[in-house]
Amino acid sequence: MSISETYFPTEPSAPEIKTAIPGPVSKAKLEELSTVYDTKAAYFVTDYYNSIGNYICDADGNKLLDSYCQISSIALGYNNPELLKTAHSDEMAVALCNRPALACFPSTDYYDILKKGLLSVAPKGLDKVCTAHTGSDANEMAFKAALMFQANKKRGNKPFTEEELTSVMENQLPGTSDMVILSFEKAFHGRLFGSLSTTRSKAIHKLDIPAFDWPKAPFPALKYPLDQFEAENKAEEERCLKALEETIKNYPSKVAAVIVEPVQSEGGDNHASPAFFQGIREITKRLDVIMIIDEVQTGGGGSGKMWLHEHYDVVPDIMTFSKKMQNAGFFFSEAGLAGDQPFRQFNTWCGDPSKALIAKTIIEQIKEKDLLTNAKETGDYLYSKLEAISTKYSGKMLNLRGKGRGFFIAFDLPTTALRNQLLAECKVLGLNIGGCGDMGVRLRPALVFGKKHVDILASIVDEAFGKI
Amino acid sequence: MSYTSKCFPNEPAGPSVVTETIPGPKGKDAIKSLGEVFDNRCTYFVADYEKSQGNYIIDVDGNVLLDAYCQVASIALGYNNPNLIKAASSDKMIRAIVDRPALGNFPGADFEQLQKDLLKHAPKGQTLVWNGLSGADANELAFKAVFFNYQSKKRGFDKPFTTEEEETCMSNQAPGNPEIAILSFKRAFHGRLFASGSVTRSKPVHKMDMPSFQWPTADFPSYKYPLESNEEFNAEEDKRCLAIVEERFQNWKCPIAGVIVEPVQSEGGDNHASATFFQGLRDITLKYGAKLIIDEVQAGCGGTGIMWDHERYNITPPPDLVTFSKKMQSAGYWFHDPEFIPNIPYRQFNTWCGDPKGIIMAAAICDEIKDNNLLEPLRETGLYFYSQLEKLQSQYPQFITNLRGKGKACFLAFDMPSGSKRAEFIEKMKLAGINVGGCAEVGVRLRPGLIFEKKHVDIFISAMEKVLPTL
Ligand SMILES: Cc1ncc(COP(=O)(O)O)c(C=O)c1O
Ligand SMILES: Cc1ncc(COP(=O)(O)O)c(C=O)c1O
């Protein structure tokens, strides 16, 4: 029996499309919902009660194969029986009704939940965790960790000076820091004020919001297929690394940290080679800069490894996560990254035990059902299917990428308009699929996606290309 | 029978401290092992939430403490409230936990109802809500809403962005990322991320080493107590502070798009202000075309004896945005002007856009407060609490000053002579069976749940009577 059959005996065998999407019921409901909620970004109204496994069901009863999965945040499919068990458990009820201020009054079982859950999949070299609420929140807390660490180092582990203590209350130097966080062009790290200052994906994400004057470096634009452009791509990565090094060296203020996604996701599923990430590591180590890897979208097993950067053989100082883990936060190594004093990295909740319980179940299932192997093998199969399609539509399906990265596969179309048309055609044919960047299509199925789902996805994508 | 007796038949009759220190031996071990995986330096003790009941928190050593701090003011209805357990095990909750949606893209069919259930409890004058995940998150989302609105108004709501704006923002430069500000008050606390950290002005340790925006501050009134005998001074204080706000609007180096203020400055010392002050603030924001954000993260959801503390000031017209979190168990901002919804999608956006789990809890908590009319007895408990503390204040004037919060239920505070005395007091209260918190340098703040009753007040006061003579 396949994984999805074990979990979801009643999963549909194929998409069922009865109406346009959004259909009449979805439309009516969106209209109503719009009186109390901004629905401009809504695709359709979902019936979560009837969604199952890899299929998302909408309010009209359409059942779509889901390769987008709540923007890459559903790990085990809809209505997973193991998550249902956890949701029904007494621990969950206690966690929901008595949400603690975790840093001050942690619960008796929090140690165990972390140890058996998140900590059991800590990336190599990072053995501590700090929990948070969203991807943006996790990244900003990681920035704070890096900034406080660097400032403490600069002041030689000494207490704050009187001048620092007074100036900081006026948001002035030296108490306020002029250190900066460097990010890459086309990066996406979130939408609060610190994280948005490092986001460089699209203007619409950034416009009208005050931002810190922080530096950026170019991210490689690789040419595909990789085996035909080895020399060019190597030169491109070297160019970017050189620019990174120069920016760090020449920037008027200290670069406290560099943040990078293992695959730039919102910005277009831009990949780079292990050598590029190893290069960042080498430069940041040498120049005394903290390296933060943002695994918010790439983490949680979709790449065939728990964390995508494990494909690269690099050990960052900090790694952030959210989305598929259903619990956000960051892993770190150096004790000093927790802050030199208590109550510096702090807020009311400091995480959420109910989310930590869900994360633990997800992690246990990943291990028990060997979902990483599934992601790797099914991902390879998916890649080969798409490769065949890309030969067939060689002028329209471009830059197929993500080989060997499990499900983390994407391709481009020649224009944004064609891309949007393809996404719409896929939906009509019963496939929920997402775009990224200006012309990209990204695949983000759950870890329970199997070969039979790949076959359906491939035939829909093939048909949709035929129509555009 | 009171709500508390009805809901918590097994609530302990009083505190009981069984170890010489808190944390005791088991607690110390637990904190130590937690430290292997989680920063334990802020940990007071490790709590056994399965056993905690009503107003009592129980730690791993079996110490039973009356809780007047309640997870930094975030537990509204006591531990293991049976009606919240029901909400936590309801079908819609299970669904919310198992299939957490990206609400902006794929709202569930029941989401409209969830929003409506929450909106029933909006502050007066507010009709819409945008959801977040924590207090800092809620405030920053509110700032973004204010900035989008401010710039859109300036540009014309139907005008497209200029190429220059689109290009400059990719390098974090004006005009795409304009220099515009949020004004906050000295001693304010609004959170610890980068923008919320910029408007927080409570303590250096909250802000140190973070890059921040150069945004203006104004003085928040420092009243003399008791209020009855200091009316003239306090009225002058309001005027002085408002004049500073107005001066900032006239002279700050960049436009001020919004003002954020707590109805009671909590982390910064439980500083109260008058209706005149808040109305004055409203008037100035209107005069200069800025928005008013009220931060009800700590004061909101019934803690002061009314659902939303700022409602008592009758601010007219009502504030533009009101943020919430903590006791609501969900976060976000209330608003009423649809102009705060950007006219292009994906501007106010993120992966989850809130959490139905939190929204369901929030509505359940608010319903419970309303259906059981919990705030009326709470106000009475508060008056009684205040009068008992007043007696102690006159008995121990060397230890207790500036008792404040009268008429705001149990949202009470007083000052001690020094930080070290305050620390000693809090520690000794713990050993006397009471969990209580400090605020600012010398303040002690009371933040019990909404189910605190006279009998709990008596226990609290008798612990103080024991502790004060030993200081
Ligand atoms: C790589 C990355 N980092 C951070 C975020 C922000 O996460 P959130 O939307 O939870 O704030 C995202 C969201 O898409 C992301 O893809
Ligand atoms: C008034 C006020 N605003 C905002 C916050 C920040 O909330 P959080 O800790 O959830 O980020 C707090 C927390 O104490 C608060 O008291």
Short description:
The complex is a heterodimer of chains A (468) and B (471). Chain A is of the alpha/beta class and 468 residues long. Chain A has 16 helices and 14 strands.
SSE topology sketch:
The complex is a heterodimer of chains A (468) and B (471).
Chain A lengths: L2 H5 L16 H10 L21 E3 L5 E4 L2 H4 L8 H8 L1 H8 L12 H7 L11 E5 L2 H20 L7 H6 L12 E5 L8 H6 L4 H4 L9 E2 L12 H21 L4 E6 L13 H13 L3 E5 L23 E4 L6 E5 L20 H16 L2 H22 L5 E4 L8 E3 L3 H13 L2 E2 L1 E3 L3 E3 L8 H17 L1
Parallel strand pairs in A: 2-12, 4-5, 4-6, 6-7, 7-8
Antiparallel strand pairs in A: 1-2, 3-9, 8-9, 10-11, 11-14, 13-14
Chain B lengths: L2 H5 L17 H11 L20 E3 L5 E4 L2 H4 L8 H7 L2 H8 L12 H9 L8 E5 L2 H21 L7 H6 L12 E5 L8 H6 L4 H4 L9 E2 L12 H21 L4 E6 L2 E2 L5 E2 L2 H13 L3 E5 L25 E4 L6 E5 L20 H16 L3 H21 L5 E4 L8 E3 L3 H13 L2 E2 L1 E3 L3 E3 L8 H14 L4
Parallel strand pairs in B: 2-14, 4-5, 4-6, 6-9, 9-10
Antiparallel strand pairs in B: 1-2, 3-11, 7-8, 10-11, 12-13, 13-16, 15-16
Helix pairs in contact in B: 4-13, 6-13, 11-12, 14-16
The structure holds pyridoxal-5'-phosphate (PLP) (2 copies).
One pyridoxal-5'-phosphate sits at the interface of chains B and A.
